[in-house]
Amino acid sequence: MKLLALLLVVAAAATTVSATPLPFRAETPLMTRQGAIVRARLPRPGHDLTLDGRPVTLTGDSRFLIGIDRDAGPTAMLSWTTDDGRPARWAVTVAPHGWDIDRLPARLSMPGPPNAEYDARRERELGQVRVARADISPLPFWQVAFVRPAPGRTSTNFGAQRFYGERAAAYHGGMDIAAPGGTPIVAPAPAIVRLATGPFALEGNIVILDHGFGLYSAMMHLSRIDVKPGQILAQGEQLGLVGATGRATGPHLHWGMTWLGVKVDPATLLPETRG
Ligand SMILES: [Zn+2]
């Protein structure tokens, strides 16, 4: 009888052990920087990936895309369940990035007078942008090597910010490419056109491209739009021309990108400026 009791205890202990598999923890952190777009593959295949609790879409072979906020803290955590049922974690180390900061006297800050008509217009325009970027589509287009959407030097970097005295203006949410008016703008990666309209008050004529998994490009200030919503573009296919519509001091292309609503730096997808 004693032996049987002992066997039962051992069997129960074995069951308990098999029901709680050992967690998996990646040895080296995923290294990135503030504002970056990161494409990676899980070191152990699995499902139900999250970044600090936020769901992240995975491909069938465990590849994924995340975006790091410009002002993100030094660490984040990827968590998922491996295919053999183990809870898994991969630390993300976020290096601080030096942003271009302009300090100007407070007197140069000139907020316009309240204008209900303008506010209503902006609400409508921003609503259209929100709807255009609302879906997390399963398109795999984000996995290619991106190309510059127009030739020309980068005149203003992502993240640049002006301070008027102590007051911080909104930071620059994309990269500006200086190019003469009429320069063709091409799709930096394959995409579906989600918005092609304008001119909006600030963005001018705008085209929003869906690259899949929550990653979107927005091309702004166009003098001409050559595409329609729903159209699928190959990489390098023309979508419009550089212009100065909306709030722009001269012709240039503003290329903004977002991942699940987080503004991210397009330059981190281009080979010459990666990192
Ligand atoms: Zn810009």
The CATH homologous superfamily of the largest domain: Glucose Permease (Domain IIA)
CA-based shape: globular
- Number of separate structural domains: 2
Q: What class, by secondary structure content? A: mainly beta
CATH topology of the largest domain: Glucose Permease (Domain IIA)
Ions, cofactors and other bound molecules: zinc ion
Segments where pLDDT lies below 50 for 5+ residues? Answer: none
Q: Compute the gyration radius: what is it?
A: 24 Å
> Average pLDDT, to the nearest integer?
93
Our measurement of the CA-to-CA distance between the termini, rounded to an integer number of angstroms, reads 67 Å
Quickly describe the structure.
This protein has 275 residues and is mainly beta. It has helices spanning 2-19, 116-132; strands at 24-25, 30-33, 37-41, 46-51, 54-55, 63-67, 75-82, 87-95, 101-104, 154-156, 161-164, 167-168, 174-178, 184-186, 191-200, 204-212, 215-222, 224-225, 232-233, 238-241, 252-259, 262-264.
Describe this structure in words.
Helix content is 13%, strand content 39%. It is mainly beta. It folds into 2 domains: 2-95, Immunoglobulin-like (Sandwich); 101-273, Distorted Sandwich (Glucose Permease (Domain IIA)). Strands 10, 13, 15, 16, 17, 19, 21 and 22 form an 8-stranded antiparallel beta sheet that branches. Strands 1, 2, 4, 5, 7 and 8 form a 6-stranded mixed beta sheet that branches. It is globular and about 90 Å long. The N and C termini lie far apart (67 Å). The mean pLDDT is 93. Bound molecules: zinc ion. Zinc ion is lined by residues 156, 172, 174, 176, 254.
